[in-house]
Amino acid sequence: MAKNLPSNTAPKAMVVRNEFFSESMAKPDTGIAPSTFTQAADGASHHISGECCDVKQKKIKFGGRGKEPGKFINNVGVAVSADNEMFVTDWNNQRVQVFSMNGTYLRLFRTVVPGKSKKMYPYDVASDIGPGYLWVLGRSSRFNKGHVVKYSKNGQPIQKFDVSLKSVYPAIAMDVRNNNVIVGDKKTVMMFDPNGSRLWSSEVRTVNGISGVTSDKEGNVLLTDGSKAIQKHNSSGVKIFEFGTYGKGKGQLNRPTGICLDTSGRIIVANSNNNRVDMFTSQGQFVRTIAIITYPRGIAMGPCGELVVTSPLTYTVTIFPRANGASLKP
Fold it and tell me: Which end of the chain is more exposed for a tag (fewer CB within 10 A), N or C?
């Protein structure tokens, strides 16, 4: 059952001006070209649609290390629902935490595996189309087989199916056309129907393993290879193309992880080891850097074009406001 805790038990979100950086990591170049990014694509996993907001927002950061509500230990996955709630996986604490789009803590639920009465370690989360269910990918122990669990948005476990997981951090997303479930794990990307029947799987050439997945309106699956490239596969799992080169320069990638799309189909990538979030066209041409942040991991688009980024290295979540033509400066 969902465990609801009063919102006043959690720390308030912090409005901040500057990012902070790990002592062991190089501080990235903070120069960014003027940018704008648009509202998220309709119904897309890790991104949603909604009425655009006229209210001017500030960048918001919240979190910190801990077990209390509003704190995290290894917060990797993030999704935003059609009713403007943000869901963040809290791996070590075996729970998903729920926040408003201004960073206010709302509630949490334990990631229980239905039929087993066991909690699982949640890696990633996706919100489906229409019904508003949450699909969480995780393991009931650190080393055994994985589960995809369907929850109500209040955390009631509804159903699950098992998946064989080899990766340390597998990824999940939804096919935006039909609510099929996409799982990226190590060197394999898979498509399941909502009951867990595997529709197809495709092997991916990668050194570090798949680190993020999403889909577009045509049913294509996009993934990050965890090393230096983005791949696009068609609705049958056949690779269409890939792009990316390794490095620190503009448009180059160093351990790309989270991935999502905006309403124009542009590809937004958490360029983790380069400490930034980059935007590319649907064909892979570099557009601009849209955010500077320490080790971005999971990313999702909010209802008004906000960019939500998890940073497990700093145990925080950052909400970048819609750019409206201005740079997203740290």
Answer: N
Q: pLDDT at residue 132 above 80?
A: yes
Q: Average pLDDT, stretch 47-63?
A: 68
pLDDT of 238 reads 96
Per-residue 3-state assignment (H helix, E strand, C coil) for the chain: CCECCCHHHCCCCEECCCCCCCCCCCCCCCCCCCCCCCCECCCCCCCCCCCCCCCCCCCEEEECECCCCCCECCCCCEEECCCCEEEEEECCCCEEEEEECCCCEEEEEECEECCCCEECEEEEEEECCCCCCEEEEEECCCCCCEEEEEECCCCCEEEEEEECCCCCCCEEEECCCCCCEEEEECCEEEEECCCCCEEEEEECCCCCCCCEEEECCCCCEEEECCCCCEEEECCCCCEEEEECCECCCCCCECCEEEEEEECCCCEEEEEHHHCEEEEECCCCCEEEEEEECCCCCCEEECCCCCEEEEECCCCEEEEECCCCCCCCCC
pLDDT above 80 (res 195): yes
Q: Please give the residue that has the higher pLDDT: either 208 or 41.
A: 208
Instruction: Tell me the domain boundaries of the chain.
Output: 32-320
pTM: 0.84
CATH topology assigned to domain 32-320: Neuraminidase (2.120.10)
